[in-house]
Amino acid sequence: MAKELILVLNPGSTSTKVALYEGEKELDSQNLPHPPEELEKYPDINDQLGFRRQAILDYLKERRVGLGDLAAIAARGGVVGQLESGAHLVDEAFARASLNSPQPHPANLSPVIARELAEEAGIKAYVYDPVCACGRAEDLISISGLPELPRPFLTHVLNSRAVAIEQARRDGRELSESVYIVSHLGGGITTNLIRHGRVYDIVADDEGAFSPERAGGLPARYLARLCYSGRYSESEMRARLKGRGGLMAYLGTNDLIEAEKKIEAGDRQARLVVEAMALQISKDIASLYPVVDGKVDKTVLTGGLAHSRFLTGLIKQRCAFLGPMEIMAGTFEMPALALGVLRVLRGREEAHINKF
Question: Which domains, ranges and CATH numbers included, belong to the chain?
Answer without folding.
Answer: 5-133+334-345 (3.30.420.40), 139-323 (3.30.420.40)
